[in-house]
Amino acid sequence: MTIVLSVSGCGASLGVQSGVEPTETLDLDGEFEFSVSLEKGDVLGLDMRRPVKSGYRIVGASFDPSLFRLEHYLEYDDGEARAQYVFTLLADCASDVLIKMEPVGGGNTEIYKRVTIFVGEDDGLF
Fold it and tell me: What's the CATH fold of domain 3-12+23-119?
């Protein structure tokens, strides 16, 4: 099962501090595809520029909720428009989180960022 989280209209209203500190935060600027290896129970932050200069907005993330629990989503500005997702890793797995975007004026949804997450011991299973 995959869940698609829609974030239109959410923005910074999801809260200032969720009280959950990431074990690791990936900076998703500059590339399309990323991967990371962590352990079950770790908390992963995904931080990226919002694609507003190119006429797009982030509209959600697609992920398996049996593998990852979304702790919070936050849009913020630190001199540039940015967004951050924070996930708790629930099970040993190899799976993707797909960050989605669409043109501000409407149109087809596209994948903005793909993050492959490997959860579990490095024992050759992945």
Answer: Immunoglobulin-like (2.60.40)
Mean per-residue pLDDT for 88-95? 97
Domain boundaries, the chain: 3-12+23-119
Q: Which long-range contacts (CB under 8 A, 24 or more apart) does 107-115 make?
A: 109/59, 110/56, 111/32, 112/48, 112/51, 112/56, 112/58, 113/28, 113/32, 113/33, 113/34, 113/46, 113/48, 114/32, 114/33, 114/34, 115/26, 115/28, 115/33, 115/34, 115/35, 115/36, 115/46
Over pLDDT 70: what percentage of the chain?
Answer: 81
Please state the pTM of the whole predicted model.
0.82
Give the angle subtended at the CA of 42 by the CAs of 3 and 40, to the nearest 5°.
75
